[in-house]
Design brief:
The complex is a heterodimer of chains A (530) and B (323). Chain A has 530 residues and is mainly α. Chain A is built from 17 helices and no strands. In chain B, a hairpin with a 5-residue loop joins strand 2 and strand 3 (133-135). Chain B contains 7 helices and 12 strands. The chains are: A mainly alpha (530), B alpha+beta (323).
């Protein structure tokens, strides 16, 4: 422990889960900013119906990299890379993950994929983040860039999944039973199970792309007897559960934040765990709703509709349990809490429109329209990116040992939420009217709504930038933070901020659950006694 | 309390069973609107059920003094059963409705008028039972169920007509179908809604619903009209129908491809630095094999077009007139 290298070397060669987590966070934030900058470019381009500033080709490149940057390089890595990495060992009372060097390898695969992604942006990859053939294997497309980005991320994700599932199973501190785990750990476990099962298939799907394009095989190539829809099945088998890779840890974080700032234990802990696991399992039976108009046989479309809309039930349980947690609490409005409360209301909009997309008959008309764009931005941008930032604020004192600026945090929250509400709502209307997504040019009657949406998006993005700025500035200049500024009750708050190397000088013996509020004696205190 | 909840659930289930759409309703577009309204009412209800208590709770239980903690409540099994069961019933209600609607979408009425449509980068070619063809324009008689059989020549496209609430992918190597009630006369937009390349956004078509007599007259006249067109006029129609001007402007403006204005007969510089004259031969070659002699400053994004020699000649003749 004493001969730790210092300086740059301490980061480049580190196997410490906390440092790797922070590197994930830094890299993911870079891609968040890239994604937002591309969003500004696209929204500016859409101010005019016929003469986009970006031009057709560049607009298509922009939406491809915007999607890839924000889903593959921001949302998934920030949750499975930063939050899971940093928090799981602290929450289960471990000194590190099960395979620290594999953990470092995961990060470097991710960083490598990031470099290829930037290259793809510069070389004009325009296949969409999902890369459907035959377009993605047609002439003039840099298929290999897409394949390498996905493969490197797949390796990173699979290694991470193996690592963290093992960690959660084997490295829990004495007394840390399954029913004493933080809900975030449960959410992350669900996410890693999905990564472990889904990613290999995605890897196979893109390897087939590569073989078809460069070696003339015929997986998807119609001319030689292939089937391009096969790719859509393989891609969405992971691609849809990937949404839950983001959502499940996010649900966990919402629970962590609400319980802490309502000063009350989580309402219905067991049903929350069951709901998380139910989503993990049912999530794998929903992918065909991405293929509702792809000529799939009728019975499959109907069966997958039932599985898709069934997801609403466990999700509903979570939402109502959060409300139950607020009941008779003592609620404090800190920035993370505002994000969590906003999340509950806005995610419900994303949720009910998600049910709409899952409804087979409903979806036929809105499939691949602006309606879908609006729906998943309500989910991924308004709710989840906001909440991920809220989560970063919540654990900011723990990670950096400093406090963020509360006033700035709250201001940024309100700016973002106001902006994004108005940025995406017009897209619901345009979608109902049938305007497709991924359009750089549109009939002129939509211009007023497009302009409205663009201006609102500038406000939203300004809010996001303000949130990021607050984090970066406070990490350097913020006030010193105590070990437990929120009076939270779970294990990670019992050690100093930032935590010492190897976290626990002595492995704690856990005698209570993670959210033991409302008892005379602090549960956290009882945890430290051994 | 328990009785109220139970009877509410029974009421919902009964609604679910009795609210199956009328079997004689055979217009998916109208059924879609009804389905949307049902969904909208339920969804607004759900959103208010979450948001109103949320606001009430955060105001009522705002922290009052330092060091205050919330009540020690673990949960409430009855409530949890309620908020599992009620959403489940709602989901079953919506799912049943949507299933019924989907059956309408797939059940083509007997005697439907049948048109085959082939998508390509970036347009559509319609083939009618009368043996005629149109590009980007689907003409159908009013008040008739129309079945469209879809396929694609190159990549995956989608044919969607928002007015009729229908949409289905056009997949190379196989056929898919959809149908709609053509209803009253009018002109409606059709979009490609599966991203298919650079000019995806320009891949729009028209659906023209005509009076039955007009449609018959049009169908018989169409063949002759095409045959009697001048070479340039036919070329212009092709250039517009094939969607060329999505990337190649005729005004001199820079797009994804070089502008057609003044192109014919001019001297152009290729990516390899060579200079060539844009004559008929060059233009025809560039349509068939766009990458063979790529103009400097442009990416090789244009797909190759396989067209009959007569069409190529017509297009070259038209470009000569774009000055």
């Amino acid at each position: 422990m004493k001969n730790e290298p210092s300086g740059l070397k301490a980061w480049l060669f580190t196997t410490d889960h906390k440092k790797i987590g922070i590197m994930y966070l830094g890299t993911a934030m870079v891609f968040l900013v890239v994604g937002l900058l591309l969003a500004i470019l696209m929204r500016t381009s859409l101010l005019s119906p016929e003469n986009p500033i970006l031009g057709p080709k560049l607009y298509n490149v922009a939406f491809t990299i915007h999607g890839a940057a924000l889903i593959l390089f921001w949302m998934i890595p920030v949750l499975t890379g930063f939050f899971a990495n940093y928090l799981i060992p602290l929450m289960i009372g471990a000194r590190d993950v099960a395979f620290p060097r594999l953990n470092a390898l995961s990060y470097w695969f991710y960083a490598g994929a990031g470099i290829v992604a930037v290259l793809a942006l510069l070389l004009g990859l325009d296949v969409g983040w999902y890369g459907y053939p035959p377009y993605s294997i047609s002439e003039g497309v840099n298929t290999s860039l897409y394949v390498f980005v996905v493969l490197l991320l797949g390796l990173s994700g699979t290694a991470g999944a193996v690592n963290f599932i093992t960690t959660i199973i084997t490295l829990r501190a004495p007394g840390m039973t399954w029913m004493r785990l933080n809900l975030f750990v449960w959410g992350a476990l669900g996410a890693f199970i999905i990564q472990l099962i889904g990613l290999p298939l995605l890897g196979a799907a893109v390897i087939f792309l590569f073989l078809d394009k460069y070696l003339g095989t015929s997986f998807y190539n119609v001319a030689t007897g292939g089937n391009p829809v096969l790719y859509q099945h393989l891609f969405w088998f992971y691609g849809h559960p990937a949404v839950y890779v983001v959502a499940l840890p996010i649900f966990g974080i919402v629970s962590e934040i609400i319980t802490t700032f309502a000063k009350k234990r989580v309402f219905g802990y067991v049903s929350m765990v069951i709901a998380l696991m139910a989503i993990t399992v049912i999530g794998f039976e929903t992918w065909i709703h991405h293929l509702y108009t792809s000529g799939v046989v009728d019975w499959a479309r109907i069966a997958f509709m039932w599985a898709t809309i069934l997801i609403a039930v466990p999700t509903g349980i979570k939402i109502f349990n959060w409300l139950g947690t607020l009941h008779k609490g003592s609620i404090e409005f800190r920035t993370p809490m505002l994000c969590a409360l906003g999340f509950i209301s806005l995610f419900t909009i994303g949720g009910v429109t998600g049910v709409a997309n899952g409804l087979l008959g409903f979806d036929i008309h809105v499939h691949d329209t602006q309606w879908i764009t609006a729906h998943f931005h309500y989910v991924l941008s308004l709710s989840m990116t906001m909440l991920a930032l809220g989560g970063i604020y919540y654990w900011f004192p723990k990670v950096t040992g400093r406090m963020y600026n509360e006033k700035l945090g709250k201001t940024a929250f309100w700016i973002t939420i106001a902006g994004s509400m108005f940025a995406f709502f017009p897209q619901f209307i345009m979608g109902i009217e049938g305007l497709p997504r991924r359009y750089w040019s549109y009939p002129p009657e939509y211009q007023p709504m497009m302009i409205f949406s663009s201006i609102a998006s500038y406000i939203a993005i300004a809010g996001f930038f303000l949130m990021v700025y607050n984090l970066v500035y406070s990490a350097i200049k913020g006030e010193k933070a105590p070990a437990n500024p929120w009076d939270a009750k779970s294990l990670e708050w019992t050690i100093s901020s930032p935590p010492p190397a190897y976290n626990f000088a002595k492995i704690p013996v856990v005698t209570a659950g993670p959210y033991e509020f409302g008892k005379k004696e602090s549960a956290a205190a009882s945890k430290r006694t051994t | 309390m328990k009785k109220i909840v139970l009877s509410l659930m029974v009421a919902l289930l009964m609604f679910c069973v009795t609210f199956v759409p009328d079997a004689s309703a055979v217009d998916p577009a109208k059924s879609w609107d009804r389905h949307f309204n049902l969904w909208l009412i339920i969804s607004v209800g759900i959103w208010l059920t979450v948001t109103i208590p949320l606001i009430y709770l955060v105001i009522k239980y705002k922290k009052k003094r330092e060091g205050e903690e919330g009540a020690d409540i673990h949960g409430n099994p009855f409530l949890e059963v309620v908020w599992t069961a009620v959403p489940l019933v709602i989901v079953i209600l919506l799912g049943t409705q949507s299933w019924a609607l989907y059956r309408e979408y797939r059940a083509v009425p007997q005697g439907a008028y049948e048109v085959k449509i082939e998508g390509f980068q970036f347009g559509y070619e319609m083939a009618y039972p009368e043996g005629i063809k149109t590009t980007n324009e689907l003409r159908v008689p009013e008040g008739t169920p129309v079945k469209v059989i879809l396929t694609s020549r190159d990549v995956i496209h989608t044919f969607s007509i928002p007015k009729f609430r229908v949409k289905e992918d056009m997949i190379p190597g196989r056929t898919t179908y959809m149908w709609f009630q053509s209803g009253e006369t009018g002109e409606y937009i059709a979009y490609c809604s599966e991203y298919c390349g650079t000019a995806h956004s320009m891949m729009r078509g028209k659906v023209i619903v005509m009076k039955k007599d007009d449609f018959k007259a049009w169908a018989t006249q169409h063949k002759e009209a095409v045959a009697s067109m001048s070479l340039e006029a036919r070329g212009e129609k092709l250039v517009k129908d094939l969607g060329c001007i999505g990337c190649h402007s005729i005004t001199g403006e820079k797009g994804a491809g070089a502008s057609f204005k003044g192109l014919h007969g001019s001297e152009i510089i290729l990516v390899d630095g060579r200079k060539v004259k844009a004559d008929d031969a060059y233009i025809k070659e560039s349509i068939v094999d766009p990458k063979a002699k790529l103009v400097k400053g442009y990416a090789p994004t244009m797909p190759p077009y396989t067209l009959p020699e007569a069409d190529l000649n017509a297009m070259a003749a038209y470009l000569k007139t774009v000055k």
